[in-house]
């Protein structure tokens, strides 16, 4: 059966009240379906992008220091088993002493910072009571300071730091608090990051300090 244009026009005109709502309803359904389809596609894309970002971040963190990183320290002097020990960067001086069997009866730890974090290649020297030990680049409890001797600001005790020009008890404690909370100094100039120590103070002590 064939319809000409005039017959089609007459049919639409006579049934417009039925055709128009059906057409609008169909159009709405199509729009809704398209909306959900593209919305789903967009979520899939966003999810994939987030997953990629997470993976990239994970890759960027490869090589960062973790608390389980293995280090080696050398402990000498008045401990039951002096020697080389495997530790981790989260361990403290007290942990190293315990691993070495503990202190001997005549050990002097009056100036040892037992809470200091360990670092690779650190040497810890525990002296006898009344013994005077002079050791550079090591953790000691009695170190004589002289004009020709430099003090390692990463390892020195409070009493040793107080021998620096312009450093009293408060500033010495501030240096210790900084390295325990922020980590070791990488160069002598970093001491100016400590609260209360500026460039002028650094100029006075720069010949006395090392890292």
Account of the 3D structure:
Residues 49-60 and 134-148 have low confidence and may be disordered. Helix content is 41%, strand content 12%. The longest helix is centred in the N-terminal third of the chain and has 45 residues, at 16-60. The chain is an alpha/beta fold. It is built from 6 helices and 6 strands, in the order H-H-E-E-H-E-E-E-H-H-H-E. Strands 2-1-4-3 form a 4-stranded mixed beta sheet, with helices on one face. Strands 5-6 form a two-stranded parallel ribbon.
Record the SSE blueprint.
Blueprint: H1 5-14, H2 16-60, E1 70-77, E2 83-88, H3 93-99, E3 107-108, E4 123-128, E5 151-152, H4 158-161, H5 169-182, H6 199-205, E6 209-210
Parallel strand pairs: 1-4, 5-6
Antiparallel strand pairs: 1-2, 3-4
Indicate the multimeric state: single chain
Binned strand content: 5-15%
- Alpha-carbon Rg, integer: 37 Å
Distance between the termini: 100 Å
Shape: elongated
Features:
4-stranded mixed β-sheet; alpha/beta; 211 residues; single chain; two-stranded parallel sheet; 6 strands
Quick recap:
The chain is α/β, with parallel strands linked by helices and 211 residues long. It contains six helices and six strands. A four-stranded mixed sheet has the order 2-1-4-3, with helices on one face. A two-stranded parallel sheet has the order 5-6.
């Amino acid at each position: 059966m064939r319809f000409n244009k005039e017959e089609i026009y007459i049919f639409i005109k006579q049934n417009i009240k039925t055709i128009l709502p059906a057409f609008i309803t169909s159009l709405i359904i199509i729009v809704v379906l398209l909306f959900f389809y593209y919305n789903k596609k967009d979520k899939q894309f966003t999810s994939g992008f987030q997953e990629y970002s997470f993976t990239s971040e994970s890759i960027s963190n490869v090589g960062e220091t973790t608390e389980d990183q293995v280090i080696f320290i050398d402990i000498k002097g008045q401990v039951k088993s002096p020697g080389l020990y495997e530790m981790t960067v989260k361990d403290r001086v007290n942990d190293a002493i315990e691993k070495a069997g503990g202190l001997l009866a005549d050990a002097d730890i009056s100036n040892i910072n037992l809470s200091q974090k360990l670092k690779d290649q650190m040497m810890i020297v525990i002296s006898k009571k009344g013994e005077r030990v002079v050791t550079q680049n090591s953790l000691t409890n009695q170190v004589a300071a002289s004009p020709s001797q430099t003090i390692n600001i990463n390892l020195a005790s409070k009493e040793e730091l107080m021998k620096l020009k312009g450093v009293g008890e408060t500033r010495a404690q501030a240096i210790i608090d900084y390295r325990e909370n922020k980590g070791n100094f990488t160069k002598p100039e970093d001491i100016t990051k400590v609260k209360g120590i500026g460039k002028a103070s650094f100029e006075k002590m720069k010949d006395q300090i090392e890292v």
